[in-house]
Amino acid sequence: MHGYRFLLYYLWIAPHILLALVAIVMRVKRLDVSFPLFAIYTWYEVAEFVLLFAIAVTKLIQGMLYMRVFLVTLAVSTALRFGILQEIFNNVFREHGRADAIARVLLRWTTGILLAAAISCAIFAPGPTSSSLIAATAWLGRGIAIIQCGLVLFLLVFSRLIGLSLQSYVFGIALGFGILSTVELANWAMRSGDLTESTRKALDLLTTGSYHVAVLLWLAYLIVPAKRVLQHADVPAGDVEQWNRELERFLR
Amino acid sequence: MNDASIYIAVAIALATLFVYLAARRKQDPAGADKARTLISSLDIEAFRNLVDPEEESFLRSNLTADQFRMIKRERAWAALAYVRILFRIAPEFTHFGHALQSSSDPRLVELGQQMVSSAVNLRLYALEASTRLLVVATFPHLAQRPPQFLFEQYAHTTGLLRSYGALDRARKQYS
Asked: What is the pTM of this model?
């Protein structure tokens, strides 16, 4: 029991300390200019943690206050995540005219299809078996997780399909949200039913653990220098000349 | 299998896919050698002939309908092999363009940006041409439009590479 509490507190506190570090690294590298929403999200999540942690340690956790604050902050956090995904799309495809136009159209279609899928799941799947607020939130959260997972998958697959290698930190941000969304999909799917105490505890560890993994991914992709596949200086002069010869042969 | 199990299975499959994409990204090979090998294996003139409308009308007027359909199908498959090479070359140009963008020379940075955009367009045109050729290979009686934009984009992309060669030579002369 002691071990569980320690682990839970660790997984609650540590990712937010690391997230503050992510925000600082972004500021230092001036990446908050290209990704202002992600920068806002990192600070917002830290502030949200401070607020919820304060409520928890002051024993207000027993009341409805914690739950209300949790749900309101969760809603804002979810909205910010959608904004960040849009921000990534804008940054990745903005400079590639035709690809940008195709990406925008496909993104609209993908979002529409995912929304329809999420609504279908909500309509045809059994509704919340419990009438608790958490079960109702889980029902909604499951649909949102489906859309976010799909959008991240679309981003990664489409950019790969058109041969566009995402910058390291952009890939890291998208991957972090991808992992986070998949775990949330499983988490909310399970929470929409009645849970035993041990399952609920396991889910608490799973979600906070996945959040920790996502933050570590963001930090790692921001700090570790991108492994450039090729530096222009690495291309031996002979290679360039040989390329030119081949190209001249085509263009004759 | 209950409702939650399906979602959990989907979540696990997606998480595995994300991890796979991250792992594949690490394994992406360096561009120069691969691009050179692919360029060497591409005979653009032969490719042009395979999708030339004049050649197609010549074949149509000299072959029986059955023979023409068979030959056209084979030509479409052969052209598809060339398009696949272009499809695979494009990311190598993108890698090279990204590498140029890390240069301290603003001319190389600009060239790199142009190369990335051009390579992305090349890949898109190759994708479009593949779809058209697949349709022609399946329904050979349909009229075929030559992938002119693909040729133009390839010429543009390789032109940028030639510009790099010229810049590189000039830099060596003055250094």
From this structure: 0.80
